[in-house]
Design brief:
With about 350 residues, the chain is an alpha/beta fold. The protein has 17 helices and nine strands. The structure holds adenosine-5'-triphosphate and magnesium ion.
């Protein structure tokens, strides 16, 4: 990578770069057997994701370590891994971390969407070469699936259920027969056989569109693992605090919100997520990831607009845009919460929050 210090820094380098030193430490210490084609053993890969104090490896995913074990075992078989769950529960983060640990590369990624085509998944052609020399190896432009198979790496398929069914089904023969046909290629080399180390991690969000919209044939070729929201309040608060501080540091803010303010923020998110409070359940996503992004916005607002630290009142207008979006019912729920629920809590931060309800739009 070019290190040119006059250039702006990358906003978010891939996990294998962000945590290169941790991966190197784990590899040096790793004497356990590795599945063929893997860069680390299952134990070391798990330690990369959930942390290892002895080696100074940070905890990156908060949750049940047995989920990581099951995910890694699946990836060492010839079934794909499907991570499903509510939005913002760290499915994408988990797939990035696992890919970085298992094959040292998390960038072979297909972003699923309504307009995803087979070209973006498997391969396409360099048209000028195609015209001048026909369908040759040189004219072939491999997409993540073909590269993952040829190089023996993990391929990440984000939001797979947002893709049209026929596009999803292009994974069938790579997953079952471990081969991809490139019928246009002349000669005997029009089959790409997968090398050891190849497999697929897909993610699907239970809100956007049902996971049911996946053919039974493809479902059978994946093992499903559900990623749940963080159950414990203190654990979620710790995560939001750490992630917000890191995000704010990257944004040039030296003074993150105090823990007391973040405690109010996380409580509000959890109450609105569960819906067992004054306002009822929000339709918008009230995930941990959203809580982190509101904490980030709150810190930016306080620092760059006032040159200070965030107060609980700052949460209100940041939440209106980031969490309630343009949903009028959610805004009304948020307003009811601030009017009826917030005053029941003691302390200056809850008072602040209650008073700031006037900042809500509409
Ligand atoms: N259990 C968790 N462990 C670590 N980080 C978490 C956890 N839950 C949420 N987060 C936060 O959420 C962010 C990851 O969100 P990510 O985009 O991976 O979620 P997602 O499940 O893929 O969401 P979506 O369904 O919207 O794509 C992390 O960067 C972190 O800040
Ligand atoms: Mg995601």
């Amino acid at each position: 990578m070019i290190d040119n210090s006059t250039e702006p820094k990358l906003q978010r380098p891939p996990a294998e770069q962000r945590f290169a030193d941790e991966l190197a430490k784990l590899a040096a210490d790793d004497s356990a057997p590795r599945p063929p084609g893997w860069a680390l053993s299952l134990q070391a890969a798990r330690a990369f994701v959930v942390g290892d104090d002895r080696l100074g490896v940070s905890r990156k995913f908060v949750g049940d370590p047995s989920l990581i074990d099951r995910a890694l075992v699946t990836l060492a078989t010839n079934r794909g891994l499907m991570l499903v769950g509510d939005p913002g529960t760290a499915k994408s983060l988990l797939s990035e971390l696992i890919a970085a640990a298992v094959c040292g590369d998390s960038t072979l990624t297909i972003q699923g969407g309504a307009s995803t085509t087979e070209d973006q998944i498997a391969y396409s052609w360099n048209y000028s070469l195609l015209v001048s020399e026909g369908p040759t190896q040189r004219a072939l432009v491999p997409a993540p699936l073909l590269r993952g198979m040829a190089e023996g790496r993990l391929v990440r398929f984000e939001e797979i259920t947002r893709c049209p069914l026929e596009v999803q089904d292009s994974l069938l023969s790579p997953l079952s027969d471990r081969v991809l046909a490139v019928p246009e290629l002349e000669g005997g080399d029009n089959m790409v056989f997968a090398r050891e180390g190849f497999n697929i991690i897909a993610t699907a969000n239970t809100r956007d569109r049902g996971v049911n919209e996946m053919s039974a044939a493809l479902k059978r070729r994946f093992n499903f693992e559900t990623v749940f929201p963080i159950a414990d309040f203190a654990t979620e608060l710790d995560l939001v605090e750490a992630e917000a501080a890191a995000a704010l540091e990257r944004s040039g803010v030296p003074a993150p919100p105090s823990r007391d303010v973040l405690e109010v923020l996380v409580r509000v998110f959890r109450d609105l997520r569960s819906g067992d409070d004054a306002g009822g359940r929000m339709q918008s996503v009230m995930s941990t990831a959203e809580a982190v992004s509101v904490a980030h916005a709150v810190g930016i607002k306080a620092w760059y607009l006032r040159g200070g630290r965030a107060a609980a009142g700052d949460i209100v207008d940041c939440m209106a845009g980031a969490a309630a979006k343009d949903n009028r019912e959610d805004l009304a729920r948020l307003r009811r919460y601030l009017e009826q629920r917030a005053p029941k809590h003691k302390g200056e931060h809850w008072r602040d929050l209650h008073q700031a309800r006037a900042l809500l739009p509409g």
